[in-house]
Amino acid sequence: MSCSYCETTCRCVEFPGTSCGDPSFTGGDGVTYYFHGRKDQDFCIVSDVDLHINAHFIGNHNPVNGRNFTWIQAIGVTFGDHRLFVGARKAVEWEEDEDHIEITFNGEPINIDTANNAQWVSKVQSGLSVQRTDIVNSIKVDFANVFSISANAVPITDEDSKIHSYGKTAKDSLVHLDLRFKFHYLTDVVDGVLGQTYRSNYVNKMNVTAKMPIMGGTPKYFSSGLFSTDCAVSKFQHNGGASHVR
């Protein structure tokens, strides 16, 4: 599942837990909305007792129309004492056959053969694996009984930029991640840009009849780093561990 831009009709926003493009999210309640964040900053998208996920945003300013656009370039997943990084490498020009996905676990690179279904299995954390879902630029992270994350590295094409007035230049193809999250367990205190929509008592206060429903409150989701758990809505407990792995 991959698309380089998203409207409400785009396939990659039809499923709960999906994020793509100038980032739109489809929440656990099935509602699609936008959260623009800010360029070169990190925001918590899921914060729960045992799990914290931040996203790093890149952006571009179009001086013609004065608009700023953002995309998710990387995610930092924290659970217990472990840190998982999934990112899209910057590229001036997009090469279809080149792998732009970068993955590290506890700071160590994860190298997976460029072959469909090639897999890495952690020797440190039981139940954690990473699998290629295509030869390049598409992977799936599985953490048994906790989550599955599918990530595709995609560029902004000249056509995308023309349609949406992104103002892309020849200096950067604005490679970013289209993501799909599936959570096997979340508590009812979960928060974050996406996480809060999975609470049983979540009340959607956005204007869902708008063409582009936008989630505000940017400052409360700000994190000081990709693996920081210090956003104002953080629920992460450092001693929580991966208690739901069986």
UniProtKB/TrEMBL annotation:
Alphabetized InterPro entries for the sequence: Root_cap
Top-level taxon: Eukaryota
Name of the protein this chain belongs to: Root cap
Pfam families linked: Root_cap
